[in-house]
Amino acid sequence: MKPHEYPAVEALLLDQVGATSDMPFGPEVICYRVCGKIFAILAWQDSPMNLNLKCEPGRAMLLREQFAAIKPGYHMNKKHWNTLTLDGSLPLDFIREEIHHSYERVVAGLKKSERESLKGPRA
Question: Model-level pTM?
Answer without folding.
Answer: 0.90
